[in-house]
Amino acid sequence: MAVSDGLIVQWGERLFYPDNRIVKGDRTPRLTGPLAVRAAAIRRRIAAVVGRRAPQAFVRVTGGGRGMGAIAAHLRYIGKNGQLEMEDDRGVSRNGEEAVRDIVDQWRHAGRYIGNVEHHREALNLMLSMPAGTEPSLVAEAAREFARLELGGHRWVMVLHRHQANPHVHLCVKLRSVEGDRLRHGPADLRRWRETFAERLRTFGLEVEATHPTVRGKSRDGEPLWRLKAREDGRLRQDLLPTGFSAAEWRRCGEAFQCWNHLWQALRDSDRSDDRALGQQVGDFLVRTPFMSEVLRRYPDEFQDVRRYLSEQREQVVARGRPGPEFVR
Fold first, then answer.
1. Which domain holds residue 145?
2. Which is nearest to 212 in space by CA: 16, 50, 28?
């Protein structure tokens, strides 16, 4: 069992906790504790992704204001012109137009003066959301803890929107901290923010994931507007692969599926019956992904173990004598 746990932690850590392997700040959710505890955490995350298809937590950058005029307009928008309650980084909650004017005055004069129009972005607009059916109050509580962990030292305002299908929180954060440092918000930071938000939601008993689409064998949904425009104008230097994967997504899928393959083998060969059952779910999940479908199509003479697995599954479906799931061909 120890050997199985070691393999599960080794490859599960690479798949679900890549920042464990890089020395960074303490805010990144990490896999810690004795081997058995870490292995149990990986098993839970595997089951959530491949078995129960846990909902995904999302953190999106929706824009940012270049000056207090744009920041004030966004605060009025997320607060529905004073109808919804706004909470700031000091824990003060209020609504109304007067609250917006007070926040604008504070942000304008605290630290470096911010005019109505600036050349550089002075605030960042975030949206933290969960699928329909999630308790809105838990989304708000998780967003509040996320802000305290990730946006410490910065002024921020959050507003919960519960009137739409999916509960979500709008967060407007002043990019320059009280000490004058600007908030980093690159792709790596956004990925960490999703993981932090999901981790906070889990502490309230919600089963939620924040895995990258490539970990699930998918490309990003749709194409960004800039790519569509560049293709129309003939300026696109690197087009997508036929399946919709960019070159970077194709590479990341390959790296993720290397981890998945090792996890599948470790679970399949485990002496625990629940591990072997989970391994069966992993196999069923992987062979249905768009990435694996394209791999088998492009390399017809390779991956015989996957093809053998698919053949066995089809035989079981036929033996049951009733319609079964659609398998990759």
1. 58-202
2. 16
Tokens of 176: 């320059």
Interval 86-115: pLDDT, tens: 999 999 999 988 999 999 999 999 888 999
Threshold 0.90, pTM exceeds: no
Q: Are 261 and 225 in contact (CB under 8 A)?
A: no
**Helices assigned H by DSSP within 67-128:** 68-78, 97-109
Q: Same structural domain for residues 12 and 112?
A: no
Whether residue 238 is predicted with pLDDT greater than 80 in this model: the reply is no
Whether residue 102 is contained in a domain is answered as yes
Looking at the predicted structure, is the pLDDT value of residue 283 above 60? Answer: yes
Which of 170, 202, 234 is a domain's end point?
202
Alpha carbon distance, N-terminus to C-terminus of the chain: 35
Task: Name the nearest CA neighbour of 128 among 115, 117, 116, 143.
Answer: 143
Domain boundary among 185, 202, 219: 202
Identify the band that residue 128 occupies on the pLDDT scale cut at 50, 70 and 90: very high
32-38 contacts: CB < 8 A, separation 24 or more? Answer: 35/2, 35/5, 35/6, 35/9, 36/5, 38/5, 38/9, 38/13
Q: Domain check: are 65 and 27 in the same one? A: no
**Interior angle at CA 253, CA 4 and CA 48, nearest 5:** 50
Quote the CA–CA distance of 236 and 230 in Å, as a whole number.
5
Residue 178 has pLDDT above 50, yes or no: yes
The total of structural domains in the chain comes to 2
Beta strands 86-88 and 123-129: pairing type?
unpaired
Both 118 and 129 in a single domain?
yes
325/328 Cα distance (integer angstroms): 10
